[in-house]
Amino acid sequence: MNFLLITCDQLRYDAIQCNGNPYVETPNLNRLAERSVRFHQAFCAAPICSPSRHSLLTGKYPFAHGVVHNGIAPQQPLNDVGHELGKAGYRSLNTGAIPHRLNPSLSFETISPPNLEDLLSEEQKAAMEWEDKNKRHHAGASNRPKELHKGYLSLQTAIAALEQTAASGQPFQYWIGFHEPHPPFFPPRPYFDKFETITFEMPDSVPEDAPPPHPYIQDRKKIWQDMTPEQIRQMTAGYYGLVEMADTFVGMLLDTLDRLGLTDNTMIILTADHGEQLGDHGLFLKFVLRDPSVHVPLMISHPSLTPGDRHELVSGVDLFPTICDYAGVETPADLHGYSLRPLLGNKGSWPRQDVLAQINQHIMLRTKEWKLNVYDGELGELYRLSDDPKEHCNLIGNPAYAGVAEQLHQRMQELLSMK
Predict the structure, then answer these.
(1) Hey, is 105 helix, strand or coil?
(2) Is 402 exposed, middle or buried (0-12, 13-18, 19+ CB in 10 A)?
(3) How far apart are CA 301 and CA 304, in angstroms?
(4) Which end of the chain is more exposed for a tag (fewer CB within 10 A), N or C?
(5) Which residue from 133, 63, 79 is spatially nearest to 320, judged by alpha carbons?
(6) CA distances in angstroms from 196 to 10, 37, 192, 266, listed in the order given
(7) Cβ(213)–Cβ(394) below 8 Å
């Protein structure tokens, strides 16, 4: 069995049509979903790129591998899933999915796409979409065609590599990352125009009598507090345009597998490194422990699997042991993840009762009913998700729930001790 893992950067769970989005059309993700086991309660290990990707690679939460923010190298050489599959003769490849520059110990062979900047005209380089302020507050139509976006360059690089790999006959795992829908939210004109005049449903407002969130969240909201409804609508249009462009790239990749005769013997895993706030809680981008930033799509397809829907809690750290399990290699005993085989095959019990996510020293523990967010050691937020799925009513100061908070905190400390 080969393995193809596809990540779409900053793709939140409900941003695609097959997960209920009423605005976007994602026919290629839809067709993959139709033949997949779909996980509706999948969560990343960090609401930011590099830490989350290192957790996908290692099967461990950020506190263990040490990459708790972008730009940080691992504390020590890491054992990744490629090291294990290499023992069984697998070739491990990466295009755009792994921060290899920070981690020279990776077992993956990185095949990098061309440098986008080398392909742009001076006019394209000077476009407003590249200004940092526009990544936070503005969106619009790009002056570049889809062929001059990072995702397309990664796609073309991956297609050529798949052609070469298929010809060799060697079993492989290939991790392919599409940059979209990561900001700046400036898709090509055809993708933006579709959404430019749509009146989107605005994010739910927080009830006036709701207890305040942690001061970190209150302070972060100030970045966007003066945004107009038109700016919010433009940001949403730009984001959804990039989602549809990412869907185009996924479709071209799936077509390549079909053309090369790889589909019948390849497990396809599609997920995201993290989500996007998109105005929820008055926030955009990520960097926070709210569900829009940590709840991600996950679908797994192989002809031997019966398609269906799963609602158990799963984490990005579960993919390493799953791949090892289906490749027939021994899974290291010190991982934080579990093989998803019981859920993929509808056999056996599922042990996971909670998921953890971390950015710097902000740490989340989430169960199906509860979420506890700890900020630099301070118990800052408690949400009862069964009653408050939008995370509006912070119960951390309510004495009636002090016991729940303490119990969740003890469980968090138990996990944090599992280096």
Answers:
(1) coil
(2) middle
(3) 8
(4) C
(5) 79
(6) 21, 34, 6, 38
(7) yes
Q: Is 134 helix (H, G, I), strand (E, B) or coil?
A: helix
For 112, residues 6+ apart whose C-beta sits below 8 A from its C-beta are 95, 96, 157
Per-residue model confidence (pLDDT) at position 136? 81
Number of Cβ within 10 Å of residue 10's Cβ equals 30
Spatial distance between the Cα atoms of 386 and 135, rounded to a whole number of angstroms: 34
**DSSP H or E run through 180:** none
In angstroms, rounded to a whole number, what is the distance separating the alpha carbons of residues 8 and 6? 7
pTM of the predicted protein model: 0.96
Q: What is the DSSP string of 269-305?
A: EEE-S----TTGGG--SS-S-SHHHHEEEEEEE-TTS
What domains are defined for the chain? 2-355 (3.40.720.10)
Measure the CA–CA gap between 188 and 180, rounded to whole angstroms.
12
Query: Using only C-alpha atoms, what is the Rg of the chain?
Result: 21
Under a CB-based contact definition with an 8 Å cutoff, are residues 195 and 240 in contact? yes
Whole-number pLDDT of residue 110? 94
Q: Is 316 exposed, middle or buried (0-12, 13-18, 19+ CB in 10 A)?
A: buried
pLDDT, averaged in runs of 10, over the chain (419 residues): 98 98 98 98 97 96 95 88 96 91 83 94 83 80 95 98 94 97 95 93 84 95 93 95 98 98 97 97 96 98 97 98 97 97 91 98 98 98 97 96 98 95
**pLDDT reported for residue 99:** 81
| 374, 385 Cβ separation under 8 angstroms | no
Cβ(195)–Cβ(23) below 8 Å: yes
Yes or no: say if 126 and 105 are a contact pair by the CB < 8 Å rule: no
Which residue pairs, CB below 8 angstroms and at least 24 apart, start in 258-266?
260/162, 260/163, 260/166, 261/166, 262/2, 262/162, 262/166, 263/303, 264/303, 265/1, 265/2, 266/1, 266/2, 266/3, 266/4, 266/302
Q: Whose CA is closest to 242, among 176, 299, 192?
A: 192
Pull the structure tokens for residue 22. Answer: 């009423």
**Comparing C-alpha atoms, which of 388, 367, 276 is closest to residue 314?**
367
Number of neighbouring beta carbons within 10 Å of residue 152: 22
- For the sheet with 362-366, list strands across it: 355-359, 362-366, 370-375, 378-384
